[in-house]
Inverse folding.
């Protein structure tokens, strides 16, 4: 039997954008503000209803790995800088290794976000 791996909660804040430049701009703004340790961008196809019509669009999923204390400020930054009228903003709790969680936490140490 193997030893259990110690885990720590982190938050994943996800949004989508239409273009690489938009994704890059948001990622850089988030990282510059030290509101996330890592931002991943991946291409997706989204199927949804918008203004009464079914839509299919290529988008880029932007996933910000952060700590719970930074979520309000991160959501505010994303809302202020997002190109969409109604952006997707989803917050999920994920469990990471203690070491990775500590790294995520340390990347935001100087962000002016108070540790809880």
């Amino acid at each position: 039997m193997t030893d259990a791996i110690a885990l720590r909660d982190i938050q994943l804040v996800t949004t989508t954008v239409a273009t690489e430049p938009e994704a890059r701009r948001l990622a850089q703004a988030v990282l510059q503000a030290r509101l996330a340790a890592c931002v991943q961008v991946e291409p997706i196809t989204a199927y949804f209803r918008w203004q009464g019509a079914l839509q299919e669009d290529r988008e880029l999923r932007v996933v910000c790995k952060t700590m719970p204390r930074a979520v309000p400020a991160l959501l505010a930054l994303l809302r202020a800088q997002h190109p969409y009228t109604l952006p997707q903003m989803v917050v999920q709790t994920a469990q990471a290794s203690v070491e990775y969680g500590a790294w995520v936490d340390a990347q935001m140490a100087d962000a002016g976000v108070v540790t809880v």
